[in-house]
Amino acid sequence: MPELRRDILTGDWRIVDTGSFEKLPDENPETCPLCPGNEHLTDSEIMSFRLNGLADEPGWFIRVVPSKNPILQFSQVERKGVGMYDQINNKGANEIVVVTPEHGKRMSELPPHQMADVLWAYQKRIIDLKRDSAIKEILIYHLENSSTGHSRSHIFGLPVIDPNLGKILTESRRHYASKERCLTCDIVREENKTAERIIYENENFIAFLPYAPSKNYSVIITPKKHSAFFENFISPQNASDLAGIILDILKRYEVVFNHFPWSFVLYTAPNMAGRSSEHQWLTLADDFHWFIEFLPSIDSPMSNFHRLTGICTTVETPEEQAKILREAKIY
């Protein structure tokens, strides 16, 4: 049974005993539980966008179902000490967003209107999951590779703040306390000064490589206008613009890396209903700025060094990598 354990040296929470996470038998449409006609192979759907039909029947174009092998499950949160260590049971949520009914179709191949609908599905699930005060963070993760079979995103409702978001929250709060400005808004202004690391932008969003990237060719997409909560920012125009810039970046990845695996994580502000006290996250709406981070799965000779030390390395400067992505011929 999965459980969360706190690393006493770093303060970070780890999930242990996850087992065979989400190994779905989806080699072909006949056996894939995510394909239309095979709805009986999954648990009852949580929600769907459909043209016709009833729940758990064909006719959908986006479908959200519980994970078949969940890391996190709905239950009462249980915290306990194990000697000097801290432990939490696997309270939370683990859902799959099936982004298209077409088996083998990649997210990069979705039409813009369907990519926008995927974003609306994310929004609806975030809003619903944040009604549970035991859930502190909603994290959306998408991985695509040649063995994925059926394109899908994972939604995790976590009873803790993950280490990466925790560090971002700390730095964002520190910057705001010092300058009374959003850190990410300042980063966007800085990137616009030279545009060396900007890949693409439209009216409402900008995509750029970080000045000190965590991995080769990592790309950040974030709104130009300050916003802490993804779920509050999405509107018809914003969803359309965000869908367009996501598809642009994915197509650039596939041109440059010849359909290598890639992933993205969507970070939105934590669940205010899950605060430990009324004093926690007092400036969150002003200091945090939601974003999506994209990562192509490219290993370098320094990957072992990264794993051992936690110090990230890249094979080129972010300016050189941004130039390669900008010049990718995708149309």
Strand runs, count: 14
> Biggest sheet: strands, sense, closure?
10 strands, antiparallel
Q: Architecture, according to CATH?
A: 2-Layer Sandwich
Domain count: the total is 1
What's the overall geometry? globular
Q: How widely separated are the two ends?
A: 48 Å
**What would you give as the CATH superfamily?**
HIT-like
Query: What is the third-level CATH name, the topology?
Result: HIT family, subunit A
Query: Mean pLDDT score, rounded?
Result: 88
- Order of helices and strands, N to C? EEEEEEEHEEHHEEEHHEHEHH
The CATH class assignment is Alpha Beta
**Spatial ordering of strands, largest sheet:** 3-4-7-9-8-13-14-12-11-10
Helix content: 25-40%
Total helices: the number is 8
Task: Name the structural class.
Answer: alpha+beta
Radius of gyration based on Cα positions: 20 Å
Poorly predicted runs of 5 or more residues: none
Strand content: 15-25%
Note down, in words, how this protein is organized.
The chain has 331 residues and is α+β, with helices and mostly antiparallel strands. The protein has one domain (3-326): HIT family, subunit A, CATH 3.30.428.10. Helix content is 28%, strand content 22%. The protein has eight helices and 14 strands. It has helices at 112-129, 163-179, 183-194, 230-233, 236-257, 284-287, 303-309, 318-326; strands at 3-6, 13-16, 47-50, 60-66, 79-82, 85-89, 93-98, 137-144, 152-158, 198-201, 205-208, 219-223, 262-267, 291-296. Strands 3-4-7-9-8-13-14-12-11-10 form a ten-stranded antiparallel sheet, with helices on both faces. It has a four-stranded antiparallel sheet with strand order 2-1-6-5, with no helix packed on it. β8 (137-144) and β9 form a beta hairpin. α1 (112-129) packs across α5 (236-257). The relative contact order is 0.12. The model has no long low-confidence stretch (mean pLDDT 88).
